[in-house]
Specification:
The protein is α/β, with parallel strands linked by helices. Helices cover about 45% and strands about 20% of the residues. The chain is built from five helices and five strands; from the N terminus they run E-H-E-H-E-H-E-H-E-H. The relative contact order is 0.17. Pfam families: Response_reg.
Length: about 120
């Protein structure tokens, strides 16, 4: 699992919750550019990524578009408080859109839906 979110507290919360849920977090980034750098460096590519929309240097839609161009097999969980971008995120390839704030249960249900 790769996490890309500019809020440090949120990144740490995702890491803690996902590890409790049995997922391995193999990278975390504070902005879109850093997230793409980490993604490019990973081999194999992660099965899942959680991407925020509003971030410095590169927004989540652009990050997702590039990640899926590099490796279409990564399932993107797009997380944003901005519900107005849900349709675009899904059209561009997000597997799931979670509107912030969401619960741990909602995140786990989204991930369990891929099994």
């Amino acid at each position: 699992m790769l996490i890309i979110d500019d809020e440090e507290m949120i990144r740490h919360l995702y890491i803690d919750l996902l590890e409790v849920g049995g997922y391995d977090v193999i990278g975390a980034a504070s902005d879109g550019v850093e997230g793409l750098e980490i993604f490019r460096s990973l081999d194999p590519k992660p099965d899942f990524a959680i991407i925020d929309y509003r971030m410095p240097r590169k927004n989540g839609l652009d990050v997702m578009r590039e990640m899926l161009r590099i490796h279409p097999g990564t399932k993107i969980i797009f997380a944003s408080a901005d519900a107005s971008i849900e349709d675009e995120a899904m059209r561009l390839g997000a597997a799931v859109f979670l509107k912030k704030p969401f619960t741990f249960t909602e995140l786990m249900e989204a991930l369990d839906g891929f099994d």
